[in-house]
Structure formats: structure tokens, C-alpha cells
What we know:
alpha+beta; FAD/NAD(P)-binding domain; 3 domains; 6-stranded mixed sheet; 21 strands
Amino acid sequence: MTDTVERVVIVGGGTAGWLTAGILAADHCAHEPDGLKVTLIEAPGIPILGVGEGTWPTIRDTLRRIGISETEFIRRCNASFKQGSRFDGWRDGSSSDSYFHPFGAPPNPDDCDPLALWRAAPQGEAFARAVNVQADLCLAGKAPKQAGTPEYAAVANYAYHLDAGAFSELLKEHCTDRLGVEHIEAEVVGVDLDDHGWVRAVETKERGSVSGDLFIDCSGMRSLLVGQALGAALTDVSDILFNDRALALHVPYADENAPIQSQTNGTALPAGWVWDIGLQTRRGVGHVFSSSHSTEDDARAALQQYLDRHAPGAGVSSADARLIKFRSAYRETPWVKNCVAVGMAQGFVEPLEASAIVMAELSAGMVSDSLPAHRVLMESTARRFNERFAYRWTRIVDFLKLHYIFSERREPYWQDHRNPESWTPRLVELVERWRFTPPSREDFVQIQEIFPAASYAYVLYGMGFETAPLRTRRRKDAPEIAARFLQDIHATKRKFLQGLPTNRELLNHIMAHGLSRV
């Protein structure tokens, strides 16, 4: 390696590897003779895990950043629009037990307190439906934009559901054909460290030694560089998040005109939950469960019951589902010397709330934005990166745990989640605070919080949590202010429901005609 960072070597492909390559190459002009040299080494035949096919709205900026058109992305990746998540059965398992976590935020809390707004809504109206229009758009199967809306622009905030394998192939093609990324198909069999423990090169079976100045470990759960060669430890959180298995399969639609859901559906089961994601041509369905609370046979039986209810006549069986084993853990120091882990090499937790791809996006973005120009800057850059992502992982763990702790279900799995001994100290502190004041931005102080205060509020109040009313009056709690905002929300809701196409209608238009790039 040289003292200046001129060549980055990425070990591993998949979504994390190719997203990282794309962001670095686009930002640092890898296609130019004097640009950053970006090389990605990918072993042939490594399958895409594909546990989660959901994304966060940040993906739109990421795709625009690396120069992929939205039309091409949707056409190539079997993609559909996602406007949030719906949770069924998490509170008590009754037929009416359902709530939304939409991407749209409530009104500015400086203008109107969301809790006051909800309390001013008609009796019995769910929190998400009272404070934002998006839950109703999802219930109606509406798209988040119109056919004439330009690429990546939104009427309602949105992300995507996508085919992870097709997405990786699109990224690979774009990076190598348009962005100047060098692609080496080879198996990494060793790591060459210098006398100070810095990575000098990786040894490959087919191409010999590949040297670089900065190495990015995208080798998945194996973590060949940061984990195996450099010894960065994993912080296990399986005592907080119990799930460690998933049964995943593809479910066909009844016909080509079947409605496409506008959200990820998460349905609670006795020892876990099921994700149900609608793409253009199929659904992705999987049962996430805890092996400490369920056998594989019992999990397959629970998944089959779900398929019988929600995909009758689809011709699929839980016996066809692929078993995936995982460990909920992350590295508190993903950047070690001149090597940084991105994607599953950095960490992985259950695919609730689609945190995997957004963490890869944020990691790659920060590596690119803070790329050290010289070796002398590596240590301080690594320290800043590690502090940021240790914080983010703890917030993810807190937020996912929040989905479980107020459940009234009586199965042992849910009872164990309710046990405060399995909560994080930070979550215990926040819940005690929220008994008297709702979640606010003061609880989450970083600029790029993965889950802001509004996300916590959607889950809290969707699960029936109660915050005590204030005994003193505040300007933003005034009934006339709440009434005005409720009127605006209802007017916007009517307008959107009348003017927006369905998901299926908009996707059919894009496949036939594309979106405007103006």
C-alpha cells in the first residue's frame, strides 16, 4: 500500500459490495485516469442470501447518486413501491389487531404535537391514520406518485421492494460498464498483513495477490478481513432479539392483474413473525423465528397455516421454504486499521424494518464522504466511523425490540420478550420517559438517525402504549391548532386517494412507457 489512498479493494459482491463500489466510483471518478481506482473481488457462484427485499427511502438518493435511472431500476429488479410497514397480530393476535408504520411523518412537532393531534381525532382512530395520510394510501393499494411525476420525485414518501439478486446484477453491470469499477472473479484464500497489522494485499486462488490502500470487507457473515484476519469481535444481541432462523420462499400471484401491496406486511405468529413483500411478478414470504422457542417442524407448520390463509391456491408449500440460519450480532469496531466492514460483515439482525440495505448504504456513503486522502488520517477516520455505527447498531436493536415489549400475546416467545431483563438499559430509560412525554427529537440526537422519533411513536401507539396527558397547557396542544391540521390531513387524504393510481397501474405504466427524467 501507499501512504496516499489511491486504490480501494472491495472483497465480496452482493448488494453491499456493489452499492459500495458504485458510491465510491461515482463520487471519486473511478472512470477517469486520475480518479480513485476501485476493484471488487467476487468469488464465482456465491449465492445471494436475499433475506430482506425491503428498503428505506434513502435508496432513492443512493440510486440517483450513482446514476441509475428509476425506470431502469424498476424494470430490471422486479421492483415495486413501498410506503411503510403494516403489523398484524403483534399486540394480542385478534382480528382487529393491526397498525401501520408509514414512511410519512406527522406534522412538524413545533407546530402541532402529534399526540395532541391524535387525541383530537375521532374516537378509535388509529394513531398512524390520524396524523398522516399514508396508512390510508396503503390500505387502498395506492402508489406514492403519478405517472407524470419525475423519476425519484414523490407525492408520498416511498422506498421499494426489490429482487436482491437482480439488484446486484444491475449494480454490477452499471459499476463495470459505466463507472469504471474493475471486477475480478476470484476466491480470496488469504490476507497479507504488514508488520504493523495493516492489510497489504489479499491473496486469491485464481489471480494471485491483489494490493490496495483501503480494503472494504463485504464478504458477508464470514467477514474474511475484519473478522477473521483482523479479529474485530462481534457483539451478540441474541439475548435481546431472539430470532435466529428464517424460512423463505417465493409465492406467485393468482394472476398478472393481482393487487400489489403498498407496504411490507409483518404478521405475528406464536414464536416469530412472517414477512410478506409484494414484487411485480411474485411475493416474497418468509417466517422469522426463534429456535429457542420453536422447532423447525413447528415453524414450517406455522408458515403453512399462514400460506393457507393468505395465499390459498398458490401451489406453494412451507416444505419448499429454504432454511436460513443467522446470528443477531454486530461489530462495535467495523473499521480496523485500513479495512472497514460493510453489510453483513459489519453486522446482521433479524430483517424486521429492513435495516440491512440502509445500513450498507449509510456505511458506504460515510466511507466515500470521509475517504482519508492519506494514511495518517486513517486512524481518526476509523474512530469517527466506529463511533457513528456503534451508535446506529444500538439504536436499531432498541427499535426492533420495541416492537415486542408491549405485546399482550401469551405464548412463551412473547412473554420472554416482555421480560424487562431482556430489554436494553437505553430502552428501559426511554420507555419510562415516554410514559409522561411522547418521543421527540431530543431522544435521538444524530442528524442521520435511522429511526427518528416519529418511527418510535408509530410503533408505541400502534401497540397500545399510553402517554399520560400533560397537566399544563402548551401552545402546540391547542385544540384549534389540532382541528386545523386534522382538516388539512383529511383534505390531502381525499385528494391523494382520488388522484393516485394503484401500485399495479403505475408499475404497468413504467414498464410500458417509463418515467420522466426531467
